[in-house]
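Appendix B. Worked example

We walk through a single record from start to finish. Start with the input: the chain for phosphoenolpyruvate--protein phosphotransferase, Kushneria pakistanensis, length 753.
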Amino acid sequence: MLEILRRIVQEVNGARSLDAALSIIVRRIRKAMQTDVCSVYLRDDERDCFILMDTIGLNASAIGQVTLKPGEGLVGLVGQREEPLNIEEAPSHSHFRYFAETGEERYSSFLGVPIIHQRRVLGVLVVQQREKRQFGEGEEAFLITMAAQLAGVLVHALSTGALARLSDPSTQALLNGIAAAPGMTIGEAFVVVPSANLEAVPERVPEDVEAEVVRLREAIDCVRHDIRQAAERLASRISAQEQALFDVYQQMLGDAALGNEVEKRIREGQWAPYALSRVVQRHVNYLERVDDNYLRERAADIRDLGRRVLAHLQKDSSARPPVYPDRTILVGDEISAAQLGEIPREKLAGLVALRGSSTSHVAILARAMGIPAVMGMSDLPISRLAGTPMIVDGYRGRLILRPQPDLLVRYESMIEEEEALTSMLESEQSLPSETSDGFRIRLMINTGLAVEMSGSPAARIDGVGLYRTEVPFMMHQRFPSEKEQTRIYREQLQGFAPLPVVMRTLDIGGDKSLPYFPIEEDNPFLGWRGIRVTLDHPEVLMVQLRAMLRAAEGLDNLRILLPMVTSVEEVDTVCRLLERAIQELRNDGVQVERPLLGVMLEVPAVIYQLEALAERVDFFSVGSNDLIQYLLAVDRNNARVSGLYDACQPAVLRALDHIARESRRLNISASVCGELAGDPIGALLLMGMGYRVLSMNAPNLSRVRAAIRRVSLEGAQNLVSDVLALHSLTETRELVYQRMKEWELAHLLPPRD
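Next comes the structure step. The output line below is what the pipeline stores for this chain.
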């Protein structure tokens, strides 16, 4: 049976459509169990019923016609109870319902099992037989196992709609992906394809090495020019901080990154296209193994640059300039920031990608430009979508193909309301983030790339609450030198002076290793990461500390933050190293002052060591993303359990409230730098708990500021008092949404179904 099970699952996994998968299921199971009938019913959430989707044994004409409500008939009973039903004489059961179109009156024995994925009933799997008999324990166990296996196979197809019908020009289809940039838009699909195939480059020995090097340099120069033009086309739609993303592309093409490594391979005996493809693939393979979303998305940037350079090497000049629809929705396997800049700004309406997430560069740009984006649409048949009318819902992460008139009217109305809200938020960008009763909340931003947020942001901010230093380390083939790090940090500190910049020390580990410093672990989130790594390699930490101190000379706006702290011994060791670095620089004649030192509160153990930590450091910064993940034992990047990751869980709120109260008692500053701070609901809860510094991704500033300005501190404190008295997530969520309505702030939240 195990071999049969394996073969069936393998066949279903290879099916080209949902209809094909269901056909394989019913035919293979009927044969394996030697029954007269096998049928599969799938749940339609919108109609709240189970629909006969495929059968072998019942009349084929009944497919798609027979529907049962939960609790109706034997199938509905299985779905409602969420447990198997095994009966010898089905027609005599009180819940039996006869459908003449199925011809099932001929069958007596009935065995039905629910198909369940993450506590959600997806459907019911049924076998029937003419003779009166109760199916054996082994048969029941096989069907239960089969349903459990099929749940994982079917869930993605069900969440994206019936794949067999996606290309039907008369059918509306609703698909779900990752909400990458908020907003809603209506437009027409324009499908983009990669400019060159890095995986299909043959290996050759160059006839003239120097000529190959020249070809490479010319191709890189051409791509540099293309990227400059793309940045110029977007200049009026994005701020200096997003413009800097294109500078990052230029850095990646520099001699210290891709260019030098490719040239080295050419001189070792590889022609330029193959050397380029190998270098790009090496970087991409490494980045795609990283568990950190922000860093993993850099693989898309490297791949796009590689394709562009390869296209110039291959001198493909036959392509005609594309003609874009008036409301272009760019659809592709993996969309890059440079591709975004190639479209006339007045025509780009939305983005849809098979790969990518909210941390990709194109998602950052889309948010800055106010362009809705949905990513992770892995089953979208993009080759058949050119010219297809569609709605992109960046709040819910939805794509609606060929929307019907009533849905179009509904979305047009919501888009008008969204435009009015955007105008209101833009008018408040320069206003202080003060509550209605005059309390000031400091809003800071999180940054990642060396020049990502340099310049003067349009919105009023109070500094950088988190600068991730690990990204510059990834752009090298070795640990960057003290001089190189000093230059990078100086740019960041000068760009925001005199505002404070909180620089987190190198946060690598099993989930974020470096290509030249690989770390392989079975459980990276509980492994060698953050401060644990750098304390084991003080030579790396000392260079970084010295570079930070040098970069801050004369600016006095550096703050140093230690990640993944678990014990006071770790902090004591860093303090000694910091004092040593200060003394070494002073001995060299560099005038440096001791910066403020803080620890990230992300390991639950530190919640019970706050007093001891407060004696050693100057501030706390709550890393809410990891703290929530560790408190709930949930990997939010794991689709099986990501639904359990919720900052409104009572245990999470109580932990955050405890940190805030203890910090006040200890008279030490405490800020929050995770995603919770960038959510209007989260910001108000944190404000009510007593946090006065919130750091977030820049696109979240406007909504958080608007929420703070419309609520009194007392109102936020009352909300916290009320939610802390609750014991369930459902109750907490309902109370919070109700209070947001009372404050007339529901428009700041993503639309609810």
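Two observations about the output. Residues 163 and 270 are 43 Å apart (CA to CA). The first strand starts at residue 37 and ends at 44.
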